[in-house]
Write a structure and sequence with these properties.
By secondary structure, this protein is α+β, with helices and mostly antiparallel strands. Helices cover 55% and strands 13% of the residues. The longest helix is centred in the N-terminal third of the chain and has 24 residues. The protein is globular. The relative contact order is 0.09.
Length: 214
């Protein structure tokens, strides 16, 4: 199948999943992230079992299911479906900064790091409390992430985060996917930014080789 046709099929599948979730919310079937996760799991399972969509989408559906079952709600099925829709429909380019950040976050999660998005209140609480700073964790300020990208997926502002644990390991992962960070004074706060374009032009072969070796 030609790549354009495959992208259209994947975009259609992702759009249908998002619409099904939207309808379920309106009808009161979903009132919590926990029920959202299980709704999407069930919906994806049925789509795969019933061969609802083009055969070329089955690998994507199977991957989503396997990862969601392995990592649970932290895998964030909704964000992955939004990402699939945006990339396959052409709303966001495959090599955008947003794609690279999503890849880095996925790698961080699979490396068993704690990851989360913090509200302003949670952010202030985590800054004041250093009790968990020995743990491997990356916590992004949600409002900062929301403002960090334009409509094409290009980063326009640095992302504020709290990092703890094996910071060198975190730095290695981020840099492998085209990102870097600077510490804010002598704190656990960091600013994450995309590297300049020329430093991000490593080959997919090297990227895959690095990812497999970790």
């Amino acid at each position: 199948m030609k790549k354009d046709n495959q992208n259209q099929a994947i975009a259609h599948f992702a759009w249908c999943a998002l619409i099904a979730l939207h309808i379920a919310r309106k009808e009161g079937e979903i009132d919590h992230p926990h029920s959202e996760h299980f709704f999407l799991l069930e919906w994806l399972g049925k789509a795969l079992k019933q061969h609802t969509f083009n055969k070329c989408t089955e690998a994507e559906i199977r991957w989503l299911l396997n990862q969601a079952l392995m990592f649970g709600e932290q895998f964030d099925l909704l964000s992955k479906l939004n990402l699939l829709w945006n990339t396959s429909s052409g709303a966001i380019k495959d090599e955008s900064d947003l794609i690279h950040l999503t890849q880095a976050v996925d790698k961080i999660k699979t490396a068993s790091w704690d990851y989360g998005l913090l509200t302003a209140d949670e952010w202030n609480l985590n800054i004041r409390s250093r009790a968990e700073y020995h743990k491997n964790a990356l916590l992004l300020l949600r409002s900062s992430l929301d403002k960090a990208f334009d409509q094409t997926g290009k980063q326009t502002e640095a992302i504020m985060a709290i990092a703890s644990g094996q910071i060198k390991r975190l730095k290695d992962i981020l840099e492998a996917f085209g990102w870097t960070y600077v510490k804010v004074d002598n704190t656990n706060i960091i600013k994450i930014s995309a590297q300049v374009q020329q430093t991000m032009s490593f080959s997919n072969h090297l990227l895959k080789k690095w990812a497999v070796s970790c």
